[in-house]
């Protein structure tokens, strides 16, 4: 087995940061803009990594760029390495950790299963929290939960800018997508014509996601009859996967169903874009540095999970730099 040299004349961590930006955005120009460096600098970082590992990391023939198998493997390692480095920085900022006897977390139901192990591991390994209580609640209950102190922090789709005294850690922005049954490639771009032959499976109107999608369709002057609805994402996806209709979902809403093995056809939404944010919210000056640790761990887990989705869904997600935006 060939042993790689451990000596480099470049900053490996910085090159991994640049490579992660290329992987997430599929373009050197976009990566350069996000990082505030030149395109030639981005190209040089990529070249340094390819020389170090003696392999091509991206297929430059495709637009947008696609990762090679080696590039996909390095991307997974880069996510974990950079997340750990950031956690080290947070740790060293404040060595003396406050004792947290109980952590109560409200979660979006669509992310609860995926994030439960991450939340428990981070709280117990970094802060030795002896008791963790998790609640999967629709986001329309989240404001009352944080105001009434029934939870200590939220992983939610709302920032609650009308409430003072909250710390906010943006995780990602995602665009909604059109989800069709597998093999349904005859869509011509007209939602109303599609709905005439294939019903739309909706969220219940009482759910935040259902209200968001219904309002967006009205704003776009798209009229679709209500035939079927449900209040859980996996129920909607199961109906679509079985061929009973189509739906409109965001990438993170797809994750549970994809993990369960549901097969779907994913396409861009053929009307004005509809977006939502995933954000961690807690009361300011509480829980020490734990919210920032959790933000980083959640971001890394979601980045890793996005690899389960197809390219169309991956490109609909933009991860935020995890920083406290204040209140």
User: Roughly how many Å is the radius of gyration?
Assistant: 21 Å
Annotation, overall tally of beta strands: 13
Q: In oligomeric terms, what are we looking at?
A: single chain
| Structural class estimated from helices and strands | alpha/beta
The major β-sheet equals:
6 strands, mixed
> In terms of per-residue confidence, which ranges show pLDDT below 50 for 5 or more consecutive residues?
none
SS field, number of helical segments: 12
Helix content, binned percent: 40-55%
The CATH class name of the largest domain reads Alpha Beta
Number of domains: 3
Instruction: Write down the CATH topology of the largest domain.
Output: D-Maltodextrin-Binding Protein, domain 2
Strand arrangement, largest sheet?
A: 4-3-5-12-6-13
Output mean pLDDT.
Answer: 89
* Percentage of residues in strands: 15-25%
| Topology as a string of helices (H) and strands (E) | HHHEEHEHEHEEEHEHEHEHEEHHE
Q: Please identify, by name, the CATH architecture of the largest domain.
A: 3-Layer(aba) Sandwich
CATH homologous superfamily name of the largest domain? Periplasmic binding protein-like II
What's the shape?
globular
Distance between the termini: 54 Å
